[in-house]
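Board notes, transcribed. Complex of a protein with iron/sulfur cluster.
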Amino acid sequence: MTLTEKIIGSHIVEGRMEPGNTIAVKIDQTLTQDATGTMAYLQFETMGLDRVKTELSVSYVDHNTLQEDYRNSDDHRYLQTVAARYGVWFSRPGNGICHQVHLERFGEPGKTLLGSDSHTPTAGGLGMLAIGAGGLDVALAMGGKAFRFSMPRVTGVRLSGALKNGVAAKDIILELLRRESVKGGLAQVYEYFGEGVAGLSVPERATITNMGAELGATSSLFPSDERTKEFLEKRGRAGVWRSLSADDDAVFSRLIDIDLSSLRPAAACPHSPDNVKAVADLAGLKVDQVAIGSCTNSSIEDLEAAAEMLKGRFVHPDVSAALACGSRTALLAAGKAGILDEFIRAGFRILECACGPCIGMGFAPKSKAVSVRTFNRNFKGRSGSAEAGVYLVSAQTAAASAVSGLLSDPSGLCPKRRDMGVFVREAAKFADDMLIPPLPPEKALLCEIERGPNIKPCPVPQPPADSFSLPVLIKVGDNITTDDIMPAGAKVLPFRSNIPEISKFVFSAIDSGFWKRATEAGAGIIVGGLNYGQGSSREHAALAPMFLGVKAVIVKSFARIHRANLINYGILPFVFVEADDWNGIDRGNTLEASGLFAVLDDKSSAPPLVKVFNKTKGAYFSLRLDADAEDRAVLRAGGSILAAAAR
Ligand code: MIC
Ligand code: SF4
């Protein structure tokens, strides 16, 4: 068996482990962050339970930390009090980015983790099956419901050889993105094995599993071995270690070979993580900004690699450079090891331990800037500056570029690495100081939940009608991200717990007329291409369109989490039977269909296709509802909240 099959096999409660089959697995742990967490806990509250039913649930505050007025602070207070009320750990603002802290403090080999953030698979670096989902699915998991998803195919990635000087784990995942593209991993788990694995530390493995999200994968997984044990021991958690790996005769659905010694430093160029080129081929590009951090590359090992490159040098006068550490523990360790001194001395700006620039919460680049970042996403406009181009690189490449002022290949320039063990052990002693543990049940029951005025109830969709005659509100192409649908950044994030307000920003970055058009029409349809809704797990990309009256989304294919979010909020997810039919539809066309109840009520594995009439063009085309029988029952009820209430 593959390791994926072993972990799923030990948690499966429904379905058969055959690729494409819907399965349900027991969830041991959940995580939420503040930008998705408020909605998740509002939904959890409606379930009427006294306490979460997982082994462990953690609420992190790491995204909305600018606090330019009361709104983010109100959300944080809500999150802290709701955590106290329902038996959830609370990670205070400043403690770090959810994925980094979870890896260091809570991750356990062999367990399952569901998180309301697409980079939850970071914990796969520890041999944990970790999956990203919408907030509502995480709320349901906190309530003890098994998580339903399509059994993924398991793609084996065999690593051989060792990385050369200057080449980092980031370059491994960038190589995979170059080969596979942002949709190459749909419906798959990437499982890493082979002699090259032992040479990678857990934080290096976590960089790779983190960016598996950019491949569109369901998850990514490394074995749990001696390096895993070493990682846990340094953090005083050796007790949770167990040895885990695929069997020698495991059968993978596909095999990818990567010879680590053949890799060179790489960069994902604007505006997609799969637009990967060798740094050497881009060398000399003038750099305006450098940012080191994010949940991808901000472990103590990353900071040490960068600091070694900075020794005796200074940030180039034309470059603005910043460090946002992934966790307070890593920052403390960096302080003890003299690494922080090096960053400060070299002229880096020190930001707080949070997502920060990765999601456009400050440190936006200048117009038309070349911004070099150790992050995982470089979608247009995500940095906060629509005209800036973001290059995704390793910490070594970022540091070398910060001092030279030009995109620089660090090959052969990286000094010998120091062992950070003693500093990590020291810092780990303080790891729990910014974590508030769950209260005992009798005390938790007495906790009052605080709700600020910006926290509005989650809107509930209308049950569907049997037919529709609706205008196409927008037509978009392939690989549309949830950042395109529902932008983030400092202006929009404060409204994550206020759907009426946030809905004004739907598609605003790519079509400023959308909100007005949708509001005037009152209801409508979205038409898109391949891999629609890739990227973030934010359910706001379904919730806000639902609030504006979007009844159906018709595309060539969906990204996994977004399709699930659409179903949760009662929006019909259709795919074209003939992809070319996309060409025949224009914005403003009226599309008509009937007999929807018969499709939704059909219990067979493949219900009938839906025939659609394009009234404007006088043409017919066929659609398939991308929903299995249980999804169809949810859609018939008008989404997961109404479906749960009806049970
Ligand atoms: C992201 O990296 O895009 C985010 C912000 O972390 C999102 C979650 C969100 O939109 O709140 C994600 O990756 O799921
Ligand atoms: Fe935060 Fe960026 Fe990681 Fe998302 S990708 S969790 S915004 S650091």
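The pocket of alpha-methylisocitric acid (ligand 1) is lined by residues 35-36, 63, 117-119, 132, 359, 377, 488, 535-538 (CB under 6 Å). The first strand starts at residue 12 and ends at 14.
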